[in-house]
Structures are given as structure tokens and as C-alpha cells.
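dumping this here before i forget
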Amino acid sequence: MNIQATLMKKFLKNFDGTSFDVMFETGEEIHIGTSQAKFKVIVHEPVSYIKLLESTTLALGEAYMNGDIEIEGDLEEVLDEIFKCKAEFKTNYHALRKLLYTSTSKKNQKNEVCSHYNIGNDFYSLWLDPTLSYSCAYFENGTETLEEAQHKKVDYKLKKLNLREGMSLLDIGCGWGFLLIQAAKKYKVHGVGITLSEEQQRSFSERIKKEGLEEYLEVKLMDYRDLESCDLKFDRVVSIGMLEHVGRENYDLFFKNVDAVLKDKGVFLLHYISGYGEYPGDAWIKKYIFPGGVIPSLREIISISADHRYYVLDVESLRRHYVRTLLCWHEGFEKHLSEIERMFDERFIRMWRMYLCSCAASFNNGVIDLHQILFSKGANNDLPMTRHYLYD
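structure:
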């Protein structure tokens, strides 16, 4: 066994919070843990010990993408076991500062966002449900299909906003527009969606025309930072899965721009992936999936909202719903693998498979969470006195 394999073997022995077998390229096998192996790692090319110490997730993620290691067993279940040993993961924040701390300028953040969402509508439409909802679904009773759960998610959010006919609604980071389409159909509200992705804007515009909702909806290619200088005002604002792209130093700026367009006593629903602490993010995710992405903690968002006199009406964790959502996406991804193989190479496919499965495992282990916070701008005494309206 060469020196790199010896050092890798030494490093993996720290992961004894679970049990698995490792077979190296020489044919040597070792067992990690104290119980029967739950999976097997096959090492074709040992991973650099220095890289494992610099960023464990980046080193192992790239090794999987490159085919240097293989996994025998269900990938999501394997990663779920590995994340039980999250305390053993290493990150050298100083060495990775250029990757972990990127510019939050408009130009750079647009490039970062578009690198993910402009991969192509044809790609996303293969494994998302027909609503093209790319955020956590809502499995009310656990038996729903993904499409049914996405419909329930949107219905639930719209109830939280307490919409009425004729109201105006802004969706910051509107994606492919399903929430606004449903809002216009069910409540006859006038909605505006903003996005940085040309692909999403094009698709949403086509959907508006197809649904005959030009009177009610429009979609703008717009940065949230431009809201403050526009002349728009809204009764309601919603933002789903967009705050993760803002960057920690800009959370206050984000609230300032929301405040500029939300009417007094208006309601704001903020839905985002959250963390327990204020961390710069994961190196592998930031390099390959969400460049510049940062996960806010619940406490810092609550704190910042208070600085802008926003009242917290409701806080809900939907972490377990995101586990199920990601597993559905992964199932759809694998179901359409032959079509995806015609679009992308094997490295991209392995990368995307790792992304979907690792996120499911992260949510399942509580490494990350999903929160919905309902705010009012100032004291709003016109909303229902209880939460019953959310479930009627």
C-alpha cells in the first residue's frame, strides 16, 4: 500500500460512528466501525491526505465525480451514514478563502446564480415535476406524489400570505413561476416575479401567455438590489430559496429592499435553507453546485428582521419534507438517466447524483434545516387571530 493509501486509511478510521468496508486498488480490504458493514467503498485511486484535511467533502466529492472511488450500496443511504460522522469532516477556511468567500457584487452574483439555473430548462424539466417547482414540497400526509406535494406547498404558502382578490404580490427569485400562476388563478392577485436567470424568465413568460394571465402577471430580469429604486409597491412579498444566494454581508440590504416595496402592514413570507451557525458554506457545494451560496442561520435572520421592525408571525421547519423532496428528485433523475446522458458527460452526472443524495442526507441528519418565516411590516391587527386559516 502506497503512502497516500496508508494516510487515507488512517483518515477513514476516524469515521467509526458508522460501519463500512474499504477495498483499496491493491486488493487490501479494511473494516471501519464495530458492527457489520452497511456499505462498501472501493478505492481505485487513493485520495490525497492533504486534500482530505483541507476539505473532506471537496476531496471525497471530487474523487467520486472522477471515478477514483465507487460506492457499493444506495448512495443516499451511504451518505446518510457518513453524515453521522460530520464532526470528523475537516475544512481549512484560510486555504479555501477564495472559494468560500466570493464577491457579492451584482455582476458576480448574477454569474454565480446563472451558472446553476441556466443549465437548461430541458434538463430541469426531466426530473422536476410538471409544475417545475425547484424547492421543498409539502407532504401533508406522506402519500402524495411529488406533483401533488408541490401543489400543496404552493397552496399552503398562499394561505400563509392571507391573499385577497386584487392584492399585489412580489416573488423575489420566482423560478419558473408556478407560485405566481397559482396565486393569479386562485386569488386574482396581480403579481410580479423577478429572477436573474434568462432561462427562467423565458420559460415563465411563455407560461404566462399559455395560461392567458398577461393581465395579472409579469416577470422581470431583475436584481433584488434594484427594488429600492423602482416605483413598485406590494401588499405581499414572498421569497423561496433565494436568500441562500444573497451572501451574509447583504442580508440587511436584502431586508432594506423588501421594505422599500412592501406596504405598511404588508406580509412577507421568507422560505430558505438554514443552518445552526453562521458558516461560510461547504466547499464542494460552492465549487460545483451553488457558487457563492451561503446558508443563513435562523437566529441571524430573526435578528435582522427586528432591526427593520418586522414582526414574526410564524416560524416553521420543513426539514423532513425536503428529505422526501430530494429523494423524489433523485428518483426522477435516475429515471431519465438515458436522456441526461445525451446532454452531459459522466462526471456531470456523478456530480449531480452526489448533490441530490448528499443534500437529502444532510437534511435527514439535521446538518441543515429548512425554515419558513412569516413576517408583517409593523403591527398588523387585520390578520386572523389564530392559525386555523392555514389549514382550512
